């Protein structure tokens, strides 16, 4: 499963493909983890028109398979690569890269999110300004037989299911302005330690989740606006051992295009 790994673990390994999802100017101008390749967030983020055009199949804003395969091939990633992704924003953009990889068939056991980000890494560890030479691959997308993707009808049904909880991972103001009926609020940043820039300690994270009614025994259905913020929360929940975590890729962009109801506070 996609999980968090420490800087110490990353530094001790020489067999990882490190992926920096920051903008190219940050990667080049501010430095990066030694050996990391640059795959900027905007290069694999489909725009909102993708969700607007969705027919409810769950694809939402995932990139086209050929585009994704080309990106990974150019970055020297193959289907056996063990990947650690990072950014400089508490991992939320890097998490989107990893969840995209999982949904498009990369083995989740080989996908990891750096616990912390570039800023926390450079406080104690070496960075580099050299772009590594990589051998291009022929990455081939092989979608898995099943994924956590759900469509709007399943989300609406989950809101009425006592064994499920629909979770809005946006900010308070966004939630108050309009959310899926029955959804609870969990700002994704509530699971981040501002000092370490990484994940809260396990018991603290579980306490935050419990206070929002998000329990391991429940099925959890996540959404935000454009599937970026739920990517981080998805990785957190899977890392903490939650077994039933569903991912509404279309999120509110798709929900609102379909004129589905919203609740306001």
TrEMBL record:
Residue intervals of the Rhodanese domain: 12-130, 160-264
Name of protein: Sulfurtransferase
GO molecular function terms attached to this record: thiosulfate-cyanide sulfurtransferase activity
SMART domains: RHOD (SM00450)
UniProt keyword Repeat, yes or no: yes
Domain of life: Archaea
InterPro entries noted in UniProt: Rhodanese-like_dom, Rhodanese-like_dom_sf, Thiosulfate_sulfurtransferase, Thiosulphate_STrfase_CS
TM segment ranges: none
Record keywords: Repeat
Classification via CDD domains: TST_Repeat_1 (cd01448)
């Amino acid at each position: 499963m996609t999980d968090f790994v420490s800087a110490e673990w990353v530094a001790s390994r020489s067999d990882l493909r490190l992926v920096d999802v920051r903008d190219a100017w940050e990667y080049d101008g501010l430095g990066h983890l030694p050996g990391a390749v640059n795959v900027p967030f905007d290069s694999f983020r489909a725009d909102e028109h993708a969700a607007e055009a969705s027919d409810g199949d769950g694809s939402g804003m995932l990139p086209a398979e050929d585009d994704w395969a080309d990106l990974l091939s150019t970055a020297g990633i193959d289907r056996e690569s063990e990947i650690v992704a990072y950014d400089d924003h508490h991992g939320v953009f890097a998490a989107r890269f990893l969840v995209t990889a999982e949904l498009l068939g990369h083995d989740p056991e080989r996908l990891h999110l750096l616990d912390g980000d570039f800023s926390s890494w450079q406080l104690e560890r070496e960075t580099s300004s050299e772009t590594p030479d990589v051998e291009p691959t022929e990455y081939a997308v092989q979608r898995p037989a099943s994924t956590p993707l759900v469509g709007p009808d399943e989300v609406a049904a989950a809101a009425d299911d006592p064994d499920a909880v629909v979770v809005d991972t946006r900010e308070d103001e966004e939630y108050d302005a309009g959310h899926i009926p029955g959804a609870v609020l969990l700002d994704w940043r509530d699971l981040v330690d501002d000092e370490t820039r990484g994940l809260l300690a396990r018991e603290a994270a579980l306490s935050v989740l419990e206070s929002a009614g998000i329990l391991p025994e429940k099925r959890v259905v996540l959404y935000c606006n454009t599937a970026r913020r739920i990517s981080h929360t998805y990785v957190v929940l899977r890392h903490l051992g939650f077994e039933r975590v569903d991912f509404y890729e279309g999120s509110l962009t798709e929900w609102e295009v379909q004129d589905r109801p919203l609740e306001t506070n």
